[in-house]
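FIELD: query
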Amino acid sequence: MVALDHSNMRHYLLTLSFLYSLALQAQPELEVNLEPSYTAGETVTLTCLGTDLPDKMLLIYAYGVETVEGQVASKKVTFALPQNISLIAGLIKIKLLAGKQMVWKGETQIMADQKAEVSIEAYCGPKHLIVNKTDFAMITASLLDEYDNPYPDNSPLEIEYLHSHHISTYAISMNSLVAYKRVYSPQTIGTGSVSVKKGQVGSKEFRLSYYSNDPVDYRLKISREHDFADGNQIIYLETSKIEDDKNNTIENGTAVYFYIYDTTGQLNAQLIGQTISGVAQVSLPAPLDSTTWILHSSIPGYATGQSAQLHFKQAIRSLPVSQNDHGIIVGPVLSFMNQQVKDGINIKMVLKGENYHYETSSPIKSGYAHLTWPLDMKPGDYKATISLSQLSTTIAIER
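FIELD: result
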């Protein structure tokens, strides 16, 4: 290859520049009438004028790519934008092709139709809030034209919020297809309503429910008629009205646990009550023996009631026992005012003899319990222990 000197190189470049300018002058001119923007629903037609006309239009839009054939006339070709594309707001990139060669490219914007009737799509959630300073619901809304195209950024909307008989109005604007606002919970329980509007057009109403915060410690109330352990009296355990730190009553159905211990720390009973209007109540019968209950209550993980002690005196002091050919008769079993004890209290008998052991029980009815001899009991000497809870008496039996 022969190297070019400086003068030859200059001549070569001038020749290339001249040939390129001739090629540009020879390229046919193409005139396309395309507006920078159109309104959704408007008929969009591209008319191309020139000698070397395109025969296809390639559209690249939000939902994909589509090809449109042109309508050719004398030195003119017309392309009509399909309706399914001209109704969708957004950017459309256009390329015109003559055969496989691109002869022109441009773009246009389809804008939401702001003159037609509008609609509002809105969502609000969560709908259940705790009354503290941080919990909130988010309401989002989109202002749409009749073809479901979102309005452009900065389009105004209004939020109306109702709580405690007071309506507040807040201005919001569309931004990146939506408008939104946080609605923080108040400091009192109840309900609220929120909606979005634009002029005379509004969204559906959203209902918000405000629930109490975590409960705080409460008091424990005890109700009884007397302090005797008669197995008959009903003891009522009840909480004070349980509230949160803002004096809001906790929700109905909140589980409150009641624990009953003896003086050794052994758990004798556990009961669960559910709150109604902030108060939980349980009941249980008095014991049958002199004892002391140590009472505790709690809403596990949240709040506790103060501890209390409940003392019981012995009500049943003796078990009169007699026997006959059929068995043992216990009674009359009397309570603290010499009245008959309630029916259904169980009397237990343990019968022991030489190589013999037998146990049975019978409920008291009208102050008496009847314990029959076992069928396999043979003649001999036995000891019978009669007991009611911790109270017992033993007698000798000869058969």
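FIELD: remark
Confidence is low (pLDDT under 50) at residues 18-27.
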